[in-house]
């Protein structure tokens, strides 16, 4: 560890996500107890495990929304613990896209503007934001719904708008925490199809799920149990194409 | 700047993109758009406070403007001379030739006199003498109306003929109290009938004339036993020489005892009234300030609730790359917009109230420009103070708030 904290290692290391001996404790609760995870560019990875196993905590750390108690977290070559809050914000704006279980769309705001506003903090000028937003909505198959407000869209469509918002700025890494958790199986299938297409076009995707079927669909599976990695297909395996989208993918019953 | 606006990695360094003013405004408006009712209610307090203060300042400025305009019309070059007190505390008298002496002062353009006659005026001889109605019977020189720049509303002023006859001209208030509305009627003065030949209009600079019944100097001496000593001399000079004339008047009028002469400028009273802000104005301003304070607390309260309700939105924005500073700025902007909205509505309301009130009273509607500046400043300060704490709270929320289920 004799590297400068902010020095990117992109040239040397091909990893988009690099966790080494990461722990995270909340008061007395040890949510993560020493996690190692390497994700290469272009992988589609499922992080699966029972409820309370530490999946969301892991996603917070990978998404730089939280800092590890100990250990190394390096995202897109940037050493997270060494970065200031401002630098982390810039990192998220540029390198990361998030999809949440709840869609978090602004009510009463058209899909196009919901997506365009997601680019507010990326430094893209307003007109370009709307162009990119329209393109992203096209990519998730909602090119015909630009002016629709969230309440005029189905759950699956809303989540696809949220996915469009996450990928409108072409972030190298997309993080999705139970993206189908609030959807019925048909809508869940829509969203998975979108993720498959994004993966096919080169986006690195991490999907958190406790749905075994969705996990099995992903080319690489990482199993989490009691704050530890219990199984991992290994870095690079996630580059393979996924199988057919599971038509019966159950919305997780939380 | 290009490095900052691309918001990416610049030579390995991460620099957040800077939001342009329109984007900052956009984030501030976002929170207001979805809750219009709450926006209106919380801006209302500030609107009421600002409206009160604008209206109070506007109404007092309008009344002041009206006084100043009246003063302009009436002129400030009128001086009055009256007897003061002797060294022994007795009522002094002006010499009989005082008026002639005053007229000799170079810059004096016109001078006239009145002299109190020791009698009463009544509608008929059957009314007891004690019931005077507060009306003074005075002798007046024929130039008085011209000197005071007054006019008659009925009949005519005293002339060379009527000033020797038992004829009387009534001041506006005197006529009103006697119930006289037309000329030709007779009134009982001293021990005989006098005929009303004229009624005067209002005399803002000489209210004592409004309450007088005026007869000519010769008639007063002939019929009412008047001693010929003037009790008030009215004099107008050029505006520039008012002070000089004022200085020489006592010695001119009474060379032997100049200290027994009192000189005053009736317009000074009006000017003083124009200058003085009434205690009432101060009280109303205080009330406006309290309303403003309450409005500010209302905005702060709304903002605190807004931050609590929007934890997820804040987390989402942080996940999209918003810095703490940008979140803080968003809520500060929202608070400023709220109070600016209130301030704007209040200014319009206050302006309308001032205009309506002033026009109803026949005044020129005036709101001092600094009151508008003050309203803008007050709204700005309140918006900032009210938004500061909620904005800091919003900025301190952990970015993970968006992902948590609750
Ligand atoms: N903010 C927090 N404060 C305290 N404990 C937490 C917090 N977040 C997560 N935990 C705890 O950490 C453990 C892992 O949680 P989480 O990462 O949410 O699991 P998962 O997403 O796999 O269901 C759980 O025991 C949870 O109670
Ligand atoms: Mg979870």
From TrEMBL, chain A:
UniProtKB keywords: ATP-binding, Nucleotide-binding, Transport
Signal peptide positions on this chain: none
Record-linked InterPro entries: AAA+_ATPase (IPR003593), ABC_transporter-like_ATP-bd (IPR003439), ABC_transporter-like_CS (IPR017871), ABC_transpr_LolD-like (IPR015854), MacB-like_ATP-bd (IPR017911), P-loop_NTPase (IPR027417)
GO terms of molecular function: ATP binding
Annotated Pfam families: ABC_tran
Region of interest (Disordered), residue spans: 228-254
Domain called ABC transporter: residue spans: 17-251
Alphabetized SUPFAM superfamilies for the sequence: P-loop containing nucleoside triphosphate hydrolases
SMART domains recorded: AAA
Entry protein name: Peptide ABC transporter ATP-binding protein
Species in which this protein is naturally found: Microbispora amethystogenes
Source taxonomy: Bacteria, Bacillati, Actinomycetota, Actinomycetes, Streptosporangiales
UniProtKB/TrEMBL annotation, chain B:
Entry keyword set: Cell membrane, Membrane, Transmembrane, Transmembrane helix
Primary localization: membrane
Transmembrane segments: 39-61, 283-308, 336-358, 370-389
Domain ABC3 transporter permease C-terminal span(s) in chain numbering: 287-399
Location of the MacB-like periplasmic core domain: 40-204
Transferase found in the keyword field: no
Domain of life of the organism encoding this protein: Bacteria
Membrane topology classification: Multi-pass membrane protein
Subcellular location as annotated: Cell membrane
Entry annotated with the keyword Transmembrane helix: yes
Family: Belongs to the ABC-4 integral membrane protein family.
Name of the protein: ABC transporter permease
Organism for this UniProt entry: Microbispora amethystogenes
